[in-house]
């Protein structure tokens, strides 16, 4: 009894003795921090080492506490696969490690937390001799006492991190960079580290009834801050915050300026907080006031206004200066430094009633509690006309005294405030984000920022004022004006320690470079707040914190479940669907094999079809279709142990094997090889479906024959065994004592066996009938051929094969009358599973005729019909005999070029050529005396069984795709009459009709063809003649692809080797190409139509034909098919390149001599309003179009024929045009780079955006390069002025132009692409313009 095969599992290698035990080399990459990501740990362990011991060794070598990290595999894409189970007692070899090879692992965070550092009991001191406390004291801006460090510490040319600390040490959580959101992360961390802002945000309570929480910016910021304060994760996502901004995923790839974001976010918060307690929070914390004044120098009269500001923009390098300001204080002094208005810039004084010299400037009236300074590092270089970044060195103090910059008198004076925002200038912007987790330590270009090194002694001598601000945040831009990366250095008000918040990495930091934005807080003990502790949270924040904690715990549990879930690819042959089914099985590692089998049973929908105890899971190799092993006695073992660890990437295959109730499962042992044995019957020329046999590689051929004899019942003494090592590579296993391994057996193998008493045993294998049958078997493909509906003949009355149809119909009728029982279906499914025929097509309830075939590696398994009577099986059918082709037949067919042409057009494939039946072509009978079957000694004929090795004329001939212009209707294999010059070569061909329902109740006429794919297209067409009913020269062959596109095959000398099983072919009536002929697609050129290219028809041009002759042949076709009644002198043919018109073809030009022509050629037909003016190749035909700027319109195209390439002649011809009355013209060529014909351009662009009046005297030089017909030239009257449009008129015209150009497939653009503006949408997101692409 045969058991339904399945799939198998683990590698069961045994551990050798300790002396010979192999070693396993493990290379571990620590990815838990930016400092260690480039480090590798190497361990060389015995193969018997367990996985939990591996964890201990890695923990010891890395200095981590065991159990606080995970180890996982690394694949070729550097992505972590399944983590290794730390509790596993399995050896490294059984867990998938390879001895003697490098095994790459990754050390990652566990549950989102960094590994814990093991305590260092040695007490090693730092080389500096300072204890930890002293080192902590000097991290950040250095103290002013001058005892430790010096000014050079601040201006070091490279950024220096202190050692990267764990999350638990810093106590802070990072933010994940979505793509280019580093600017957002820097600002959010700064706001989070601002006690007054954080506390005020916590006091605000979200009302569910007022707004959707998803769109509430304050609520999402509140959630984010709670997570930053309480989460145990290393970093958290900001997607909820950006979603509340109304941003989609594309915004994550837009980098913006951090100062611009600060302004936009504050505006959005003010809008959201209206009529709440926090309505004026932004103004209370960040808003200051300044006076913008002008003072007359003659009378002292001063006019002024009061403006508010949220930040102060400070110039780093004054305009026109080469020296930058050295400090923030200097830049602030320059900010309030007045300028003198004199000369032409004098100020009109209201008191003096005349223009006077005056001073204009700014004075600070009030500084905010939180002072924001923007250092304007981005500038524009008017020499190079590029944006630049200023990396000049500028110091900024840790404590900034703003009292010298305040105007005390003005602050006391009465004020009439006109609230305008004078700080809106935004010059800093970047376009790309480095998205780097590691900070560069070599950024010399970004240097230039250091803290003020004023000594503490000087500070003591200076009296303290009430306007002293302390620095707490430095937002840094690293990079250039073209792009870069933002991060923030922030001082904690809790411990006065400076930290670097670089996306998801948070670490202690000593100092920073290239500051872009500084934040100071006023030193006022009465106002300086401390962070709210968790216990002091308002009740609504406590509830929010509890919800987030529960969500985080749920996410952690889900991750744990995911980490312990085995993801398996499950296969199985469904006994009802009769096809191999693939599913994804997910099972917890602690589930037993028995439970997993029940899950797979339900997943495969087998309940009520087969009993559960008739199913089992076995290890399977899908690629080799190989059953690796079964799991006898391991039904209660957990899947995690059974599979050698958690398999989490669907890279592990199992098969659900099914048996009949009266069968017993066959054990599959590791180390066995599987062999698919096909029994060959020489008498019936049939090859049976495969039978699975399992063997060992060390078995001999004699022992292997005994195994096959037991499985098939054949005689081992007379058995011939042929191994197919690869496609069509057959090897006779004739050495009895040779092992299977020596013969080249692998995990999955395919052999053919034959055991008979025929004399074929005595023949040389390559000359034997067995070899010829197997050769035919390996090269035969099955094709579905659709016949033309209006075929002149029918299958019933064709004289070439009168009995074929009747026999086939009888076979079909007999098959339809038989219905299979349930037992038969189960039996058949059992056999299919046993044979692992994964590519078997779905079985129908009715069996087909003798063409039924089993697909095993696309092989033709059954050549004879299983529905035939036994005595008829050995007799070739008359259809088969009558249609077997000899390559040297007397039929005449031209050698043509075969090309899978452009996408088939309905006009070119559906019409029947008018000369099909009228043309006289010789049509020889296929079944004649000269080409009749040649009998062989074993009863076969030379048509059905042939040599698989092609004749010398065919050897070494390469197959070509139908794309070249060579071999145009000629090939050395054919003589002038189309006969094949090669030796007589008989290739297998067998066809039979079948009906395919088209949905209307009527079946389309189709053929099921089995043919040797080494047959040429010419011979294939010749064999189809009796079925089509016309000679092969009168029908065309189209190959149908998966998307139902049809491509014509016309190269008769090429074989069908590019075809494969079940390809579809459509036969269409129509004259096939003769030698030297080319199929041509004709398009009409309509230069002034919206769609200038219109398909007309398909036609045929021949080598040696003149253009006039082709025009004469086109005239009746144009009239009949296109309703175009033309005279031969009122249309021309011209070159077509994509949609662009080219060279005009003159009547005397000859194809392939003067005009290069190829298969599937395309040509333009242009109707002329007057007789042809092009008479010589020296002439040049260009298309001109007038631009009328006063009317904002383009006139129609007009053709100008030039005798030379002179610009002056072109002007003269343009002057002569009916629409031209100008005396002075400027010419413009629209270059090829602007698009295809008709080179459409917006009327809003053409006048100013293009380069008019090129300084050339001839057209064939730069920048025009007009050397061929069809060039497009715009011209205009240079005296005609451009009309002035109002904004409303311009907008209306813009809409019309956009609609016009979109309809014609041309894109409109009015200016170079601008940077995307930063916006926060308060209504949930932007609304797209319907006309926007």
UniProtKB/TrEMBL annotation:
GO molecular function, one term: cysteine-type deubiquitinase activity
Transmembrane feature ranges: none
Keyword Protease in annotation: yes
InterPro entries: Papain-like_cys_pep_sf, Peptidase_C19, Peptidase_C19_UCH, Ubiquitin-like_dom, USP, USP47_C, USP_CS
Ranges for region Disordered: 112-148, 406-435, 791-822, 834-977
Source organism of this protein record: Cyprinus carpio carpio
E.C. number(s) listed in UniProt: 3.4.19.12
Protein name according to UniProt: Ubiquitin carboxyl-terminal hydrolase 47
Residue ranges with Low complexity bias: 837-852, 908-924
Stretches with biased composition (Acidic residues): 964-975
Bias (Polar residues): 116-132, 415-435, 791-802, 874-894
PANTHER family reported for this sequence: UBIQUITIN CARBOXYL-TERMINAL HYDROLASE, UBIQUITIN CARBOXYL-TERMINAL HYDROLASE 47
């Amino acid at each position: 009894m045969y058991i339904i095969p399945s799939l198998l599992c683990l590698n069961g290698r045994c551990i050798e003795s300790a002396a010979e035990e192999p070693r396993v080399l493990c290379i571990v990459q620590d990815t838990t921090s930016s400092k260690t990501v480039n480090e590798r740990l190497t361990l060389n362990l015995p193969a018997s080492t367990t996985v939990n011991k591996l964890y201990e060794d890695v923990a010891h070598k890395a200095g981590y506490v065991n159990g606080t990290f995970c180890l996982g595999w690394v694949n070729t894409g550097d992505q972590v696969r399944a983590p290794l189970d730390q509790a596993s007692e399995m050896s490294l070899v059984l867990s998938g490690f390879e001895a003697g090879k490098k095994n790459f692992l990754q050390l990652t965070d566990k549950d989102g937390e960094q590994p814990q550092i093991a305590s260092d009991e040695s007490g090693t001191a730092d080389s500096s001799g300072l204890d930890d406390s002293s080192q902590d004291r000097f991290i950040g801006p250095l103290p002013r006492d001058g005892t430790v460090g010096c000014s050079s510490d601040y201006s070091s040319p490279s950024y220096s991190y202190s050692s990267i600390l764990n999350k638990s040490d810093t106590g802070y959580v990072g933010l994940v960079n979505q793509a280019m959101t580093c600017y957002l992360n820097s600002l959010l961390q700064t706001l989070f580290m601002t006690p007054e802002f954080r506390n005020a945000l916590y006091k605000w309570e979200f009302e569910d009834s007022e707004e959707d929480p998803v769109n509430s910016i304050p609520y999402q910021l509140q959630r984010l801050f709670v997570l930053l304060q309480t989460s145990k994760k290393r970093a958290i996502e900001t997607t909820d915050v950006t979603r509340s901004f109304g941003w989609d995923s594309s915004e994550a790839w837009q980098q913006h300026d951090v100062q611009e974001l600060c302004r936009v976010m504050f505006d959005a918060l003010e809008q959201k907080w209206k009529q709440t307690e926090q309505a004026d929070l932004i103004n209370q914390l960040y808003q200051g006031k300044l006076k913008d004044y002008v003072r007359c120098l003659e009378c002292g009269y001063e006019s002024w206004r009061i403006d508010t500001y949220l930040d102060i923009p400070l110039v780093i390098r004054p305009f026109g200066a080469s020296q930058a300001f050295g400090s923030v204080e200097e830049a602030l002094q320059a900010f309030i430094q007045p300028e003198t208005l004199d000369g032409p810039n004098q100020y009109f004084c209201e008191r003096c009633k005349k223009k006077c010299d005056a001073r204009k400037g700014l004075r600070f009236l009030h500084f905010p509690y939180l002072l924001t300074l923007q250092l304007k590092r981005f500038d524009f270089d008017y020499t190079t006309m590029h944006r630049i970044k200023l990396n000049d060195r500028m110091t900024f103090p840790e404590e900034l005294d703003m009292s010298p910059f305040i105007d005390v008198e003005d602050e006391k004076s009465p004020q009439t405030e006109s609230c305008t925002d004078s700080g809106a200038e935004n010059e800093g912007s970047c376009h790309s984000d480095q998205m780097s987790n590691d900070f560069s330590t070599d950024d010399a270009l970004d240097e230039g920022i250091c803290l003020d090194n004023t000594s503490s002694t000087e500070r003591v001598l200076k009296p303290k004022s009430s306007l002293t601000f302390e620095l707490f945040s430095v937002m840094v831009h690293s990079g250039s004006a073209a792009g870069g990366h933002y991060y923030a250095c922030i001082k904690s008000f809790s411990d006065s320690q400076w930290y670097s918040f670089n996306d998801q990495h948070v670490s202690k930091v000593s100092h920073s470079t290239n500051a872009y934005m500084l934040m100071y807080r006023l030193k006022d003990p009465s106002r300086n707040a401390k962070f709210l502790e968790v216990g002091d949270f308002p009740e609504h924040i406590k509830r929010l914190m509890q919800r987030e904690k529960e969500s985080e715990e749920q996410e952690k549990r889900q991750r744990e479940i995911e980490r312990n879930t085995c993801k398996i690819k499950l296969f199985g042959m469904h006994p009802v669907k009769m096809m191999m089914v693939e599913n994804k099985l997910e099972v917890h590692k602690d589930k037993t094999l028995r439970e997993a089998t029940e899950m797979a049973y339900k997943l495969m929908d087998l309940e009520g079809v087969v009993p559960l105890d008739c199913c089992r899971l076995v290890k399977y190799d899908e690629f080799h279709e190989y059953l690796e092993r079964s799991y006898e006695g391991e039904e209660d073992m957990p899947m995690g142990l059974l599979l050698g660890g958690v398999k989490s990437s669907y890279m592990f295959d199992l098969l659900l094997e099914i048996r009949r109730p009266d069968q017993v499962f066959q054990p599959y042992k590791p180390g066995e090889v599987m062999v698919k044995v096909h029994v060959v019957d020489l008498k019936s020329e049939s090859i049976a479906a495969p039978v699975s046999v399992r063997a060992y590689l060390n078995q001999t051929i004699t022992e292997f024959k005994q195994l096959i004899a037991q499985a098939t019942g054949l005689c081992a003494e007379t058995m011939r065994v042929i191994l197919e090592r690869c496609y069509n590579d057959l090897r006779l296993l004739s050495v009895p004592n040779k092992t299977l391994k020596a013969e080249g057996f692998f995990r999955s193998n395919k052999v053919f066996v034959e055991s008979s008493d025929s004399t074929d045993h005595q023949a040389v294998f390559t000359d034997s009938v067995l070899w010829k049958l197997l050769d035919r078997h390996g090269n035969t493909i099955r094709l579905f051929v659709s016949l033309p509906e209006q075929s002149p003949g029918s299958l019933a009355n064709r004289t070439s094969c009168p009995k074929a149809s009747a026999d086939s119909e009888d076979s079909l009728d007999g098959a339809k009358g038989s219905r299979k029982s349930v037992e038969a279906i189960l039996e058949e499914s059992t056999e299919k599973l046993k044979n692992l025929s994964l590519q078997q097509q779905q079985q129908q309830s009715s069996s087909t005729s003798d063409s039924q075939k089993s697909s095993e590696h696309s092989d033709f398994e059954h050549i004879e019909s299983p529905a035939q009577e036994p005595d008829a099986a050995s007799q070739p059918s008359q259809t088969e005999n009558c249609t077997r082709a000899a390559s040297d037949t007397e039929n005449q067919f031209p050698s043509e070029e075969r090309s899978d042409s452009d996408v088939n057009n309905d006009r070119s494939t559906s019409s029947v050529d008018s000369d099909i039946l009228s043309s006289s072509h010789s049509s020889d009978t296929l079944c004649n005396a000269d080409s009749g079957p040649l009998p062989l000694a074993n009863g076969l004929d030379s048509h059905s069984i042939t040599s698989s090795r092609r004749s010398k004329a065919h050897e070494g001939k390469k197959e070509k795709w139908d794309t070249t212009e060579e071999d145009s209707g000629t090939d050395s294999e054919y003589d002038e009459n189309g006969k094949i010059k090669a030796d007589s070569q008989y290739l297998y061909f067998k066809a039979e009709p079948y009906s395919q329902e088209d949905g209307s109740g009527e079946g389309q006429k189709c053929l099921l063809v089995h043919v040797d794919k080494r047959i040429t297209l010419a011979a294939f067409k010749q064999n189809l003649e009796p079925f089509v009913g016309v000679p092969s020269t009168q029908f065309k062959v189209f190959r149908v692809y998966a998307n139902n596109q049809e491509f014509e095959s016309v190269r008769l000398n090429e074989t069908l080797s590019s075809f494969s099983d079940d390809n579809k072919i459509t036969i269409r009536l129509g004259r096939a190409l003769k030698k030297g002929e080319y199929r041509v697609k004709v398009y009409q050129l309509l230069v002034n139509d919206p769609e200038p290219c219109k398909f007309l028809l398909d036609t045929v041009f021949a080598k040696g034909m003149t253009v006039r002759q082709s025009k004469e042949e086109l005239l009746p076709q144009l009239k009949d098919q296109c309703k175009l009644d033309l005279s031969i002198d009122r249309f021309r043919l011209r070159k077509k390149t994509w949609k662009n018109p080219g060279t005009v073809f003159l009547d005397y030009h000859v194809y392939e001599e003067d005009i290069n022509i190829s298969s599937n050629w395309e040509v333009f037909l242009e109707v002329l309003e007057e007789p042809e003016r092009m008479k010589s190749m020296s002439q040049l035909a260009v298309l001109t179009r007038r631009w009328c700027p006063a009317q904002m319109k383009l006139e129609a195209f007009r053709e100008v024929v030039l005798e030379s390439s002179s610009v002056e002649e072109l002007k003269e011809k343009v002057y002569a045009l009916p629409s031209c009355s100008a005396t002075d013209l400027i010419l413009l060529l629209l270059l090829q780079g602007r698009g295809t014909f008709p080179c459409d351009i917006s009327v809003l662009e053409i006048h100013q955006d293009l380069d008019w009046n090129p300084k050339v005297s001839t057209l064939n030089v730069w920048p025009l390069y007009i050397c061929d017909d069809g060039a497009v030239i715009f011209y205009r009257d240079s005296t005609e002025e451009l009309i002035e449009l109002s904004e409303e008129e311009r907008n209306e015209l813009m809409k019309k132009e956009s609609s016009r150009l979109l309809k014609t497939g041309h894109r409109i653009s009015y200016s170079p692409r601008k940077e995307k503006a930063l916006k926060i949408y308060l209504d949930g997101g932007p609304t797209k313009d319907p006309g926007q692409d």
